[in-house]
Input
Amino acid sequence: MNKLDEDIKELQIRLEGGSIQRAYRGIVSYMSRLRTVFAGQQGERTPSGIYQGYFDMTYFALFPDTLKVRDLKLAIVFNYETFYFEVWLAARNRKLQKHYWKLFLNAGYNKHSLIEPTVGIDAIVTAVLKEKFSFEDENSLTTQIIESVMAFERDIIVFLNEVDAQDNS
Output
């Protein structure tokens, strides 16, 4: 039996109880509700649709006007590898991703994690929004995530504005 067949058999065994499906549906449903909250907020943060992923990540993107004019966006991510909620600064394409990564790197940015561009990596800068969480108090979780996303966005915008100011002087 080859490795893929072994993995599929293992998946079948683990799925029989139904808890994996319920947990996955719960995470995707929560991300959908979180997206709806962001969509209903005042301001210009148009959200994308939800990418459910392949048990790697589930995410949606936000396009704040202040970042969109730079061809940047925020991704609100549930990372299945770490089991964390994260926020990523991402670019419209790989060329811009590399450009902004170099800009952050050369300016000595260290407020959040800087991610070197490589195949399969979309983030330029990342931050953990919530490590340990419970869906028992979903409102509190949502509030914490939103506040952390807004703080991350402010940090990125302040940094980009400071770089612009230095370039214009």
Notes: Residues 3-168 form one domain. The first helix runs from residue 3 to 15. The chain has a mean pLDDT of 91.
